[in-house]
Amino acid sequence: MYYNGDMDSCRRIGNLHYACHTGDVTEVGKLIRDGVELDVGMSDGQKPLHVACERGHRLVVQQLLDAGANTEKLDSNSLSPLHLAAIRGYDAIVQSLLDAGAESNIVCPAGTPLYAAVKCGHTSVVQKLLDSGANMEMRDGQGWTPLHCAALHGRGTIVEVLLAAGANLEAREVRDETDFTPLHVAAFYNQPIVVQILLAAGADKEATDRNGCTPLHAAAQRSHKEIVQQLLLAGADRDARSTTRQENCLEMAQKRGNVEIIALLQSSCLTCGSQTSLRCQRCRVAPFCGRPCLKAGWKAHKVSCR
Q1: Which of 136, 189, 218, 283 is the S-S candidate for 305 at Cβ 3.0 to 4.6 Å?
Q2: Which pTM does this prediction carry?
Q3: Is residue 12 part of a domain?
Q4: Residues 55-86 as b or e (16 or more Cβ within 10 Å = b)
């Protein structure tokens, strides 16, 4: 709610917001002693505590908390002070809010504070929220868990933190009705570090989404050769067929014309087409049956060789 009182009170409330914005501890203390209202929003719905949290003024945040500011008020974007501190990565402010009793599982359309910290890559904030009892399986408005979010954005360290805390490896997301697991997400969005972590943790490489596609299907469809190789080396079934189109990974790659993905799935030389277990010595991915074929195919291959 916004304040509609007398002009002097409005002026003091505006002064408090400005002092919180600039981190003026002295002015904030004076206004608190004068009895200014602490939980009144400006036109953007932000209360003084929101402003101080977003700007990273820890001492001002503590002043407001000690004076009884409400930690659960939302701004016009439905964000709490804890959301804002988590988004910015202010771990000391996050701890102050939690110590003051802020709800770690407060939900907004963008998810919980934990989800916000994961998305923005703030590992220390993620750990503090987990230590406070944040729920790792609560989803954002589109059906993603924090582990899905970490997989999407390639947050390898955070993936490890979430897994160590017991996050569900096989949780299904419902955005776009795909039923992706975190491994599907990492494979589809080309996050090889996360793929490796999830595989090492025992993620099901044969899990199927709503269309019957495995993570290998997802990587082949998107032409992510490193991830295709990772999954094949982990023993993923290259012959598995989707339930909707009845395609295996090779047929999916052939439709998209990616010769290197096709070669990985076929194990055939990119130049002569013969079966081979040899690979380019530089990228160790593309199959060539020997130096003559590598030399002949180098002009086309060097673009993607790394």
Answers
A1: 283
A2: 0.83
A3: yes
A4: bbbbebbbbbbebebebebbbeeebbbbbbbb
